[in-house]
Write a structure and sequence with these properties.
single chain, alpha/beta, 6-stranded mixed sheet, 15 strands, 32% helix
Length: 196
Amino acid sequence: MSARTGLVARLREDLTAARLRDPAARSSLEIAVLYPGLHAIWAHRVWHALWVRGARFLARAGSQVTRWLTGIEIHPGATIGRRFFIDHGMGVVIGETAEVGDDVMLYHGVTLGGRQREGGKRHPTIEDGVAIGAGAKVLGPITIGAGSVVGANAVVTRDAPADSVLVGVPAKPRHRRNGEDTRALLTAPEYLEYHI
């Protein structure tokens, strides 16, 4: 497969992922033209490529332009997987050493941030298939296991195993129940129903 074919296939994959995750999406054209989360990830791929090739000032400058245009700040050093989707997106911040797996979804106002000033790994690792609700903060060099759900406005500062549900401040992981529908946690959690 040529690089051009690979690029086209990747763009189509992103559009398909957005259509699957956003019930309001009406067409691929609408998504490609009007979705700032998609614009931010497409731009991030360019800035990240420059970052890893050593053009760090240019990469940071480009990421700041993307931030001004989309309201989404992704540091060019962050590693982002495939089929990543940011719904709405305004106020999303992803730090330099963050690692995001495949099929991850973030809502607006999510922060993947640091908690210390020392160098090295300072930001979270988000494994495949994780969904993080509006306003949630995932802080520090922690790992959120694959298939987990972080509820809206949760503050997560500790590791969570795969298939966890995290709600509250501070959030504590609990295992997902069989057949549990966690979609409501992402936008309007009923914390009283989800005791940990």
